[in-house]
Amino acid sequence: MAFLRSRRGDRAGDLAYRQGTSQPSQLTRSRTADRLPVLPPRILPCGDAAVSVEFGDAIDPGLNARVLALDEALRRAAPKGVVETVPTYRSLLVHFDPLATDHDALTAFLEEQARSVAPLESTGRRWRVPVVYGGAFGEDLDDLAGAHGLTAAEVIERHAGAVYRIYMIGFLPGFAYLGGLDPALATPRRTQPRARIPAGSVAIGGAQTAISSIEGPSGWHLLGRTPVRSYDPGREPAFLLAAGDEVVFEPVDPSRWDDFERAAQAGQPVAEQVHP
């Protein structure tokens, strides 16, 4: 079920993320001192076997906390017929068996739960993730720095100086979308996406940064790479990171890569849990 949940993060999770707005610029609020006003949830159909419970249309920790609270409530006491839930930035996609539950009754239940559930204010685990920046590990670092009038060292300092929130896992198994990027580093996605980038790539796309999990296509700008395997089907647990966790990046010298890589191949997490 965990593998199914993450694989659907691309199709189902992204659908829930985009539903209700065609303007990506509406989804760029990632660092705010205040919280967005609490709006009533919306429940939208996604085919005949899923609904999206929406809490807003922005990248905001308060919205995401409500999403994760509803997800946790359904995990603990899922009504009959619910097959799977997929949390995204600001909505929860709920898959159900239409032969095992009544759509109207399920929708009413979800609306009641969404209105009454208390946000999960506490964060999950905090991970220190080693990253080799620049060079062959991050071929877009210098160009991105130049585009912002910064040096590569300044970009690294800014990128590694933040505490990031994992808002969702999706697109590929274990692919982590992070909010909390320094606005000075926000960069539109590449006009020419790459057909394949390495596993563990640390990249910037718009107002977000991300940790890729496996090789795959990407239009994001590559800053560096981590040996951390956020998804490893031969490891228990297969998925290392989770929505609600926090990430801090630690710049490391390229000379340490081989040692980290051997540890990852042996099944070690490489990322270190740290206390805030």
Instruction: Summarize the main sheet.
Output: 7 strands, mixed, barrel
Poorly predicted runs of 5 or more residues: 1-33
Under CATH, the topology of the largest domain can be stated as: Cyclophilin
Report how far the terminal alpha carbons are from each other: 31 Å
- Class of the largest domain in CATH? Mainly Beta
User: Number of helical runs?
Assistant: 6
Shape: globular
Question: What's the name of the CATH homologous superfamily of the largest domain?
Answer: Cyclophilin-like
Proportion of residues in helical segments = 25-40%
- The gyration radius over C-alpha positions equals 19 Å
In a nutshell, what does this entry contain?
The protein is α+β, with helices and mostly antiparallel strands. Helix content is 26%, strand content 25%.
Keywords:
Gyrase A, domain 2, Cyclophilin, 6 helices, 7-stranded mixed β-barrel, 276 residues, disordered N terminus, 4-stranded antiparallel β-sheet, alpha+beta
Describe the secondary-structure layout.
Elements: H1 2-18, E1 42-45, E2 50-54, H2 61-76, E3 82-87, E4 91-96, H3 103-116, E5 126-133, H4 141-147, H5 152-160, E6 164-169, E7 176-179, E8 194-197, E9 201-205, E10 208-211, E11 216-218, E12 221-225, E13 246-251, H6 257-265, E14 272-274
Parallel strand pairs: 5-13
Antiparallel strand pairs: 1-2, 2-4, 3-4, 5-12, 5-14, 6-7, 6-13, 7-10, 8-11, 9-10, 9-12
